[in-house]
From TrEMBL:
CDD domains to which the protein is assigned, alphabetical: AAA
Protein name: AAA+ ATPase domain-containing protein
Residue span, AAA+ ATPase domain: 192-353
InterPro entries per the UniProt record, alphabetical: AAA+_ATPase, ATPase_dyneun-rel_AAA, Methyl-DNA_Rec/Restrict_Enz, P-loop_NTPase
PANTHER family xrefs: 5-METHYLCYTOSINE-SPECIFIC RESTRICTION ENZYME B (PTHR37291), TYPE IV METHYL-DIRECTED RESTRICTION ENZYME ECOKMCRB SUBUNIT (PTHR37291:SF1)
GO molecular function, one term: ATP hydrolysis activity
Length: 474
């Protein structure tokens, strides 16, 4: 069995198919093609090479792939084809969603087919039917016709290796309140493992860190973002059937599937060096990991990148080598179970501390201007105070109380519940020092509600720390 692409002209089909044929979706009768061109001077391309039961993709001019048929009749004596000999193509199925010329072009599939049968190799044919997500439906129709199944390509490992451009710029170090050693470790782990999770308590800037790293290592167009929740599913993330306006179901590609297609196009260029594609998942521990990832738990693993498998929808799929996943996880969310161990093995976990972790409160006057011998933690903390306009007596006084509060939180609840520095970020107006009133609002409407949740059964503890926090900014 061979595969062909037939260039179809609606105006030429209409006279033969009659009044019931008003649009491509009406194709339900055999169509005959004369073996000679209109001038009768020579055979149409490949007319002598066609065989009965060959599969034909119908490429409609100015539209794209609109359907699939099979050859039901060819001239008996192909070595002596006569002027009136013809080839018959019968319909197998018409696509509910046409594969447009733009889609074919984006996926490096030739679209310039002329008025004849163009040979289509098995790899290209498989790519087209998987792009259309019709393998299962097509095989069902073929079975009814007594024709051969279209087998999925055998799993393979992409052999070609390319250099993936992977570097970060100075802006990342300047904009993140983290020591360079931690930033470099995050980048190194992402480059090696390809999958990392930034974990930490509320307000340490996990999402912002992921955003800045993604912006640094690739163009903003080469990234995507999703947030997991309890109702998020495999169908949303990878692929699945969803109801359409006609009362039926369409096979819809999910966000991660589409991201992998984009990354794959970037990887399969003629360039020896390619850019990374960064896929960010916020609140990764809020979703049902096994349910959402399904068989992708294997494919996202570094050693299985480029490995092609057949999904439950009979769609061929692989995770490209230049796709990198950054997940974020809030360690203070007690409503969630421990993260799936199968996922944990495939990710590296980096704990993100608050900027004031490790800062001693014995001499707060020097916090904003450490001496030259100060370690990197103190220098980053000073940068935070000055950039966020907190280097005032009352600003540092409040931060000192938060440091003390974090010690008690860590002692009573655990390190995953301490308060992060982002509660005090981006509060300055017109680059002026943060006002006491602004900091009181942060205490009243951000920090205290968090403490009330932490110590819902200990109102005295909440009252003590509320009074202590407010006293710092009197």
């Amino acid at each position: 069995m061979a595969y062909w692409i037939l260039s179809a002209d609606f105006k030429k089909w209409k006279p033969e198919l009659g009044d019931s044929f008003n649009k491509w979706s009406d194709w339900n009768k055999p169509i005959n093609y004369n073996c000679f061109i209109s001038s009768k001077t020579r055979l149409k391309g490949n007319a002598a090479n066609l065989n009965k039961n060959d599969i034909v993709l119908i490429h409609a001019k100015r539209n794209g792939i609109i359907g699939i048929g099979y050859i039901s009749y060819v001239p008996i004596d192909k070595e002596n084809i006569q002027e009136n000999d013809y080839i018959t193509v019968e319909p197998i199925m018409v696509l509910e969603n046409i594969l447009t010329i733009d889609e074919l072009t984006k996926n490096n599939l030739t679209t310039g087919y002329q008025n004849s049968f163009t040979s289509c190799d098995e790899a290209k044919f498989n790519k087209i039917i998987d792009l259309a997500s019709i393998r299962s439906t097509l095989n069902t129709r073929l079975k009814k016709l007594g024709l051969n199944f279209i087998n999925s390509p055998k799993p393979n490992i992409i052999s070609k290796e390319k250099i993936i451009n992977f570097s970060i710029n100075q802006d990342v170090f300047d904009s993140l309140y983290l020591p360079k050693s931690i930033i470099n470790k995050i980048v190194d782990l992402l480059k090696r493992k390809k999958n990392i999770i930034l974990q930490g308590p509320p307000g340490v800037g996990k999402t912002y860190i992921a955003k800045k790293i993604a912006e640094s290592i690739t163009d903003t167009s080469n990234s995507d973002f999703v947030q997991f929740h309890q109702n998020y599913s495999y169908e949303d993330f990878v692929i699945g059937y969803k109801p359409n306006e006609k009362g039926g179901f369409d096979l819809i590609k999910g966000k991660f599937y589409l991201a992998c297609l984009e990354a794959d196009k970037m990887y399969n260029t003629n360039n020896k060096q390619v850019n990374p594609y960064v896929f960010t998942i916020d609140e990764i521990n809020r979703g049902n990991i096994s349910k959402i990832f399904g068989e992708l738990l294997m494919l996202i693993e570094n050693n299985y990148r480029g490995h092609t498998i057949s999904l439950a929808s009979n769609t061929q799929f692989s995770v490209p080598k230049n796709l990198y996943i950054i997940g974020m996880m809030n360690t203070a969310d007690r409503s969630l179970a421990m993260i799936d161990y199968a996922l944990r093995r495939r990710f590296s976990f980096i704990s993100i501390p608050p900027v004031f972790e490790g800062i001693k409160d014995d001499d707060i006057t020097s916090w904003g201007s450490p001496d030259s011998s100060a370690d990197e933690t103190k220098r980053v903390f000073a940068h935070f105070l000055n950039k966020e306009k907190l280097n005032t007596e009352y600003g540092k006084s409040l931060i000192k109380v938060v440091i003390d509060l974090n010690r008690e939180i860590e002692d009573k609840l655990g390190k995953g519940f301490i308060i992060g520095h982002s509660y005090f970020c981006n509060l300055s107006i017109d680059d002026n020092d943060i006002t006491k009133e602004c900091l009181r609002d942060v205490i009243e409407y951000d920090i205290v509600p968090l403490l009330e949740e932490y110590w819902f059964d200990d109102t005295d503890m909440v009252k003590k720390w509320k009074e202590t926090l407010f006293a710092a900014v009197q």
